[in-house]
Amino acid sequence: MAGMTSSARPPLNRRFAEFGTTIFAEMSALAARTGSINLGQGFPDTDGPDEVREAAVRALREGRGNQYPPGPGVPELRTAIAAHQERRYGLVHDPDTEVLVTAGATEAIAAALLALLEPGDEVIAFEPYYDSYAASIAMAGGTRVPVTLRPHEGGFRLDLDELRAAVTDRTRLLLVNTPHNPTGAVLTREELSAIAALAVERDLLVVTDEVYEHLVFDDAEHLPLATFPGMRERTVTIGSAGKTFSFTGWKVGWVTATPELVGAVRAVKQFLTYVASGPFQYAVAEALALPDSYFAALRADLLAKRDLLAAGLAEAGFEVFRPAGTYFITTDIRPLGEKDGFAFCRALPERAGVVAIPNAVFYDDRETGAPFVRFAFCKRTEVLTAAAERLRAAFAH
Prior knowledge:
globular, 14 helices, 4-stranded antiparallel β-sheet, alpha/beta, 7-stranded mixed β-sheet, 15 strands
């Protein structure tokens, strides 16, 4: 028959057979269709600082970045990233050889894993994990090995013995995320020290996703893994402007590492987007130089919003795991008499006029993640107040 191929093989690469439309697209469409409050996808509903937005407008008008920017990123941004890492964490990077600008953290993750993995290499990732991790490991032909963060004393904790036991002779890389999406856990100095010692002992590479580095609360502290002994030369650190400055649509992320590791990631990245976000790179360079008061105000604002939504969820009957970082709250729906997060989230818009995300999509073991549901609190206070009221009305007795 005309147009038929001689092969019965399906069109989609078999490595992607398990990945359909992301849950974020499904739930955002459900929110739009039902007019529900969308606490599913993690994007703010207000823009970031006016001066940063105006810096982008200024770059556009002055013709900076309207054509292809340099492959590694514009010098102003690479210099600003290096200055940020040194000022905040004492990490010294050469902006010309140890910094690479990417199309958001998602590209940075994909480029790093494609660059550093060979087919058959094992990658240990902390489960539940951001869904692009699994897809990027699959693209690289790697094998993902989940180590599960489990509920403990009102939060989620890493079992260091389980992590050590997961390492085999085929393990190439640890994929670390702290502050952790979706659980809101922030790895402690003790946990990070143990991860670092294991990586050195077993000669492992580490890719560490630190995009929520400025969103930490209470007594939590963000400690970059690259600052620990033996880790500077084996760690690829990923950062992003989207979460810190509330311009998620600009897609400006970055990688910092040794020249050898950055060179490897850049070799792949040039064949993904090549370059992106030209004028926005200049604006993010200015954003990274904002005074400490900006970052303190951001944390204080999100802390108040966390507490507002957490209280509403608790009053509605959810078990709430209060996050130490990020802008997500994970809840357990079993106190509501529910156990299937997918079914719960698909019915939630009709029941309460609110959209959330089932955490099971972030697990290899869907049963382990089944009772957990994630809500985003990076929204205006009045939106969170309305959502809390709807949830209380729907579930509180």
